Inverse folding.
């Protein structure tokens, strides 16, 4: 876990039992719904009753796909977290990278651009890295052993820790972000 210039560990992030994942999915769900309404309402002459069935079907599909994906993944996403003197980042586990590649290939072979696109979107987030200079604050959730890194307007990265490495990670982040720690 400890490297010469930082920290590195593997963690299986829970999906359905993770309040942060559920909050993020709710935000995506709400944003998608608002955008769809913004497009459909003017197209129907602001007749909300005519788009209600369509919006309910869209919501059901979104929730169903999230649950299906969770079942396929075994309720977790494997990630490698990296903290070094430059910043904080994560990488998808090898299993997740294989699944995203398979999604792209299956989408192309099936002639389904939306499936291939979702695989491409997932692969674009296979590796993330944020420099310490771009991070405005780090919110530490001691109860869940999660640290959320935020820029000036949103959360850009979360790291999930084990009981045995949490204090070490908090100490490292405190060293890298003096005066920018928020404890909850």
């Amino acid at each position: 876990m400890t490297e010469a210039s930082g920290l590195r560990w593997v963690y299986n992030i829970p999906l359905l039992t993770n309040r942060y994942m559920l909050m993020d999915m709710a935000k995506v769900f709400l944003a998608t719904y608002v955008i769809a309404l913004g497009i459909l309402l003017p197209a129907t002459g602001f007749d909300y009753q005519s788009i209600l069935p369509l919006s309910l079907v869209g919501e059901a599909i979104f929730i169903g796909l999230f649950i299906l994906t969770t079942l396929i993944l075994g309720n977790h996403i494997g990630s490698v977290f990296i903290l070094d003197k430059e910043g904080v980042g994560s990488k998808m586990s090898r299993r997740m990278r294989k699944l995203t590649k398979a999604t792209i290939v299956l989408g192309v072979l099936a002639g389904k651009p939306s499936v291939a696109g979702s695989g491409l979107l997932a692969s674009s987030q296979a590796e993330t890295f944020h420099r310490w200079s771009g991070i405005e604050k780090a919110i530490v959730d001691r109860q869940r052993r999660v640290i959320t890194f935020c820029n000036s307007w949103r959360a850009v990265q979360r790291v999930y820790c084990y009981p045995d490495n949490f204090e070490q990670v908090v100490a490292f982040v405190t060293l890298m972000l003096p005066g920018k720690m928020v404890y909850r």
User: Anything to note?
Assistant: Helices lie at 19-43, 48-73, 94-109, 113-124, 166-176. Strands lie at 2-3, 6-14, 76-84, 87-92, 127-131, 137-141, 146-150, 155-160, 181-183.
